[in-house]
Amino acid sequence: MPHTDFSGDITTRDHEIIEEILSAWLSVPGLRMKSQRSRFEVSYEDATVELYCHEARPATGTGYGFFLLDGGLALPRAEAADRLAALGRLCGDRRLRFEISHVEVDAEGNEPGDEQTIR
After folding, report:
1. β-strand 98-105 against 34-36: which pairing, if any?
2. Where in the sequence is the domain holding 9, given as residue range(s)?
3. Is the pLDDT of residue 63 over 70?
4. For every residue of 20-69, which 3-state class applies, written as one string?
5. Could you read off the pLDDT of 8-27 as tens digits, one per residue?
6. Does 98 reside within a domain?
């Protein structure tokens, strides 16, 4: 089965906005982040999506905070790119900076293609 790994970030300090975005993107009403070790995080997995998202802040304590996303999609490369672009549009609708890189991975863990980035 095709698989696409992804990692990226969304710039905001507001975990509630991230909950709304991920809830809409995953079609999981009421998805909530948990407070763990003074940061917010959420893990989600279904037959198609594996996602871990957590809050990160600049080391200096100044500037914008952001949320890191890591995971995979059990979808062919083109479908995965469309699905990730939909996440980007949800962020753009809220005027949040969004960047995510993705690469197709074969059954042996090899990356047969180039990594792509969506902004």
Report:
1. unpaired
2. 3-111
3. no
4. HHHHHHHCCCCCCCEEECCEEEEEEECCCEEEEEEEECCCCCCCCCEEEE
5. 999 999 999 999 999 999 99
6. yes
Instruction: Indicate whether 118 belongs to any domain.
Output: no
Measured distance CA(36)–CA(43) in Å, rounded: 12
Q: What is the pLDDT of residues 76-112, one digit of tens each?
A: 889 999 999 999 999 999 999 999 999 998 877 777 7
HSE, CB side, 13 Å, CA atoms: give it for residue 48. Answer: 10
- How many domains, in total, are found in the chain? 1
Asked if the model's pLDDT at residue 35 lies above 80, the reply is yes
Question: What CATH number is attached to the domain comprising 96?
Answer: 3.30.70
Tokens of 91: 């962020």
Q: How far is it, in rounded angstroms, from Cα 83 to Cα 73?
A: 9
Q: What are phi and psi of 22, to 5 degrees?
A: -65, -35
Structural domain contains residue 116:
no
Residue 49: CB partners within 8 Å, gap ≥ 6?
Answer: 26, 71, 72, 73, 74
